[in-house]
Design goal:
It is built from 4 helices and 3 strands. It is mainly alpha-helical.
């Protein structure tokens, strides 16, 4: 799952609309509700919804700044 964890909604929306949506050929508004892009709380809610739907494993793919984003994901989302 593509991800970009940031508390700045404008930055998350920019990454989603300028990088991910064009790459996938999909609408950014549709993807916003599915991908881990945005504030920690929203990412946790999405992961919980996927867990409740039966998902047991999620592979993440940071869209930008991969090492920094992996660190943020581990510190803020996983813990």
């Amino acid at each position: 799952m593509w991800c970009y964890v940031t508390e700045d909604r404008a930055v998350a929306d920019e990454v989603l609309s300028s990088v991910v949506a064009p790459m996938l050929g999909r609408d950014a508004d549709e993807l916003r509700g599915q991908l881990l892009m945005g504030p920690v709380d929203e990412c946790l809610e999405k992961l919980e919804a996927y867990r409740q739907a039966g998902v047991q494993r999620v592979f993440i793919w940071p869209v930008k700044d991969p090492l920094k984003q992996l660190g943020v994901f581990m510190r803020r989302v996983v813990n």
